[in-house]
Each structure stands twice: as structure tokens, then as C-alpha cells.
Amino acid sequence: MTSETFTPSLQDVKVTLAPKAPRNRIWEIDFLRGACVVLMILDHLVMMIAQFFGPAWFGVDMAGDGGAAFCRWCAWFHESEVRTAVRTAVLFVFFSISGISCTFSRSNVKRGIVLAAVAMLYTGLSYGAENVLGISGMHVNFGVLHFYAACILFYALIEIICRRFFRDGTLAKCIASVAVIVLVVCLYYLYTPPADTPEWLAPLFPYEDAYGNPSLFYDRGEFSPGDICNLIPWSAFFFTGTAIAPLLYPRRYSLLPFMDGKWNKPVNFIGKYAIFFYMLHVIVVAALLMLISYLFVTPGDWVLM
Q1: In this structure, are residues 67 and 57 in contact, taking their beta carbons and an 8 Å threshold?
Q2: Which of 99, 115, 107 is nearest to 174 (CA)?
Q3: Predicted TM-score of the model (pTM)
Q4: What confidence tens digit (pLDDT) does each residue in 162-185 have?
Q5: Choosing a second label site near 294 at 20 to 30 A (CA), which of 178, 215, 226, 243?
């Protein structure tokens, strides 16, 4: 009996290419982020009316009825404790959602570097807008984009260390996130940087401490008046998200799939492209208010130009 060896030819080989599995977006994360962006836009609308357009339209005291009353309300709300409480709650949701999203990323190093580049571009544009419009106090040296870039890159470093030195990387990252939260909270409530602290540390420490005392070594109005988002205390919110993400989304599936539908698509769209809304909304809101001023309230006067 003889044995024959079978040598397959190319015609006998069939290769089936499986399509790349789609990355499922968790709808409630986009929705919450989008809702926070909408509230941020409304907050900046109120701020512009309270500080710029209301006084220009109705005088510093904004006396009168109708529109003047709304402008007075904007001025009250902008300085009220209600706004402070709402703003803190919105920032907690916004930053913690960003921390959760960070744990889903395949490359936080790449995301952080790209976002840092965008943040630097935003800084340049803010200086350009300040010079073009002739309005001082618009430049941004360390705003939300800079904050996110710093947090993402720091979390990327945590990921690298945990993968290299710990068997259970997920648990190690949660512990590291909790440690960051504890450190940030302790520094916020228990440490005040002295007056001789270098100004380049301004992004790290708050311009106003937990008890309302202004910083001793820099002035927010000079450093980054257009927007500022210091790592202390706000990074505690971000790392709350990275700490709880494995508990809420161990399999990276929506917690509320039965609620998903067409009703949330507009807000989800805003949340999905939040960075573009953040970068453009101030210009759009200011332009709309200037157009309203020029055409209806103070004909021929743009207010900001």
C-alpha cells in the first residue's frame, strides 16, 4: 500500500475576511456630554448678556421692562449661588464622563497629544480674536481643552505603568485613580501655594482656594481670563470617571439600551462632536448677539466692535 501526500493548491484555499467589528458608542455617555455642552452654551450666553450686551443695550443699571428685566436676571444669575451650584454639578458630570470615555480609548497617548495640539491652536486663536476685536481679557492659556489634554496624558502614563508592573491592570488603574483623587482633594483643602511659587505652575493650582481666598502667586485675570480650568480641583472629577468606569461598564455596553432611540439623537450629536461645539460656540453666540444688537436693539452698533 502506498501513501500519497496531498499538496493544496491556491485554488483549494479559501480565505474569508471577517469585517472589522464596529465600535459601539454608549448612547447615554454622548447624551450626558451633549446636555452638558448645551448648558455650557446657555451659561456663556447669560454671561455675555450680563457683562457686555445688557449694559450696552439698557445702561449699566439695565433699567426698564421686558428685555431689560431679562438682562437683569442674567446679571443676577451670573453672580448667584444657584449658578455656582449648577456649574459645579455640570462640571462633575462633564469631567467624569470624559474620564469614563478615556478608559475606552485604544490610545490615550495619541488622543492626548492631538488634543494638546488643538488646545495650543485654541490659545493662538483666542489671542488673535482679542487683538482683532480689541477686547482685553479673551485669551486662554489653560482652558478646558488644555485640562483634558493634561488629564488624558497623565492617565495614559498610569495605563503604561499598570500594564508593565501589575498583573491586574484594571484594578491597579482604579487604585491609582483613587490615589489621584485623594491627593487632589487634600491639596485643594489643605495646601496654599506661597507667593514665590513660579507662575508656570498656575495651571496646577486654583486661582481661588476652597475658602474663597485668591491665589498668592498669580492673577487669573492676567494669566487666562477667557477661560481657566485648573487641575486642582477639577481633575478629581475626571479621575472619578476613570475609577468608576470598570464598575459601570465592565463590558463597555450601555446601561440603558432600552431607552435608546431617535429622541436622543440631536443631543447625542452634540455630545459626539463636543470639541467642535466648544471651540466654535463662543464665536457663534457672540456673532448672533452682535447681529441682534446691530439690527434691532442698538441699530448700527455691534457693541463688541
Answers
A1: yes
A2: 99
A3: 0.89
A4: 999 988 889 999 999 999 999 999
A5: 226
